[in-house]
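Memo to structure team: turn this sequence into structure tokens by end of day. - J.P.
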Amino acid sequence: MVPVLALAALLVAGCDGGSQTSAPPPSSSSFAPSPPSSSSASSSAAAPPAAKNQPVVVLDPGHNGGNGANARAINRQVPAGRGATKPCNTTGTSSNAGYTEHAFTLDVARKVNAALSARGVRVVMTRQDDEGIGPCVDERAKIGNSAGAAAVVSIHADGSNSSGAKGFHVAYSSPPLNDEQGAPSRKLTEALRTGMLGAGFPTANYIGHDGEAPRADLAGLNLSTRPSALVECGNMRNSGEAAAMSTSDGRQKYADAIAAGILAFLGR
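Reply from structure team:
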């Protein structure tokens, strides 16, 4: 596993969700270029078309398990919106005990998928496993846009080393770049915040305000033309939150809160 940088400056400027970092640049004998999204196929390819009045939700579990071993692929620059570029993807953070964000986000997304599917929602995942590379942040946004999603929810966990840092926050694109990033995305953000609060999760005490954080630097949000938000479930460097994230029951609680927020947004 590639070590995760914990510089405080990356907390605000991190790639699509918290204090993640790109993999270190490759040496002359390092990895050959790899396709940046070897496991990026969404479930939309295999899933049947949505039934009439059946909402589609895109779940975007942050990072991927193969990112750390493929520096050249994930460090290449891609569009990030607002005229900027940023690395294709990053390694993500981890708990002090070594439990990785990419494993956490995929398991939570799978649990959210199960909850939504049971309520008649068609779910598209931006990645299906934890062995691939990427997809790049711009491609993740394209998956949501192409699906015509009623909601796009990115799932992450933070890695702040600030003393006592804990709690969740929900990020949204601000200032909005299109109508869907305006009122619809704010409504989704508020629904997710309410779902997290209803499950007893505290709001972040080190970033954002009352569990919400306007962001202009997150590519997945900037490039979205669908209602979208990013949930930072908590801080993996906080021992209490890391303990919850590292258990299946704890991840189920996060998933239930996110699913409740999405279903409330959908009016289901």
